[in-house]
Structure formats: C-alpha cells, structure tokens
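Weekly modeling sync, notes
Attendees: S.R. (lead), two postdocs, one rotation student

Agenda item 3: backlog of single-chain predictions. S.R. asked that every request posted to the team notebook include the full sequence so nobody has to chase files. The rotation student volunteered to paste the first one in as an example of the format we agreed on. Action items at the bottom.

Example entry:
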Amino acid sequence: MAESTVTPLLIARNASTQCVLLPALANRHGLITGATGTGKTVTLQTLAENFSKIGVPVFMADVKGDLTGISQAGSIGEKMAGILKERGIEAPAPFACPVTLWDVFGEQGHPVRATVSDMGPLLLGRMLNLNDTQAGVLNLVFKIADDSGLLLL
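Predicted structure, as returned to the notebook:
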C-alpha cells in the first residue's frame, strides 16, 4: 500500500478531537503501563485492531486473557450508544480480528515450544531488535524475575 494512501489509525476521540497514529511513525515495540482502570487493555485492543485492519501482524502477551475479545465482533450497549449520540460521535462498526491463541500446554491453542525464560534476555532482545536502552530494561526484568524465583512465560 502506498504511503500516501494509508489512513491514520484512530486511537481515541471525543466530539471535537481525534487522536490518530500515522502507521509509518509507529514503533515496532511498545510497552503500556498504568494503574488499574486507566485504559491499558482498551488501548492495546484499539492498537491491535487498527494494525490488523491494515494487515500488520501484532504479537501481544496476554496472560489473563483480557485481549482475546478482539477475536469476536462486539456489540454496542445502550449506555455506550447513548454516550456516543450525546457527543455526536458515529458508532463504529463492530468487527472480529484474526487471532492465534498460544497455549502453554498445547491443548486448546497453538503450542508454545519455549518460554520467555528459556530464551533469555540476550536472544529475546536480538529477536525483538531492541536498542541498548530497551535491552537494559529487558535484562532488569529477567534479573527481577530470577531473583524472585518467577518464570517468565
């Protein structure tokens, strides 16, 4: 797809403003953090849905299963429909995204053949093409997990 024909990805909006991301300016890797209830899951779903629409594969670690909902077309509830109408925002058309769910036990999804801990920070950093700062953060994650006796899956 030619650069000039790629539509910006809508991330968030209200009645007067839109927050968009130009696909050519998107980072290859990202980390979204925040307290409970701040919109991390919705942000990840929105990014994944938008990238899926333009054919960009997305890998997301989802230990709790919060993100699997993008595999099904949703529906807009009455309360949300009312809020959208009140703010003059057209309701988006629900759609499903293609997903492959990895399964550590290989019973209900695509089998995982190695854990993140198995790969280690050096190999994982190379696979993700991390810069020095990102690799340093990844090394800290592994050290904290190792010191705490935790396995990174």
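Discussion: group reviewed the output briefly. The chain has two domains: 3-100, 114-153.
Action items: rotation student to repeat for the remaining queue; S.R. to check formatting next week.
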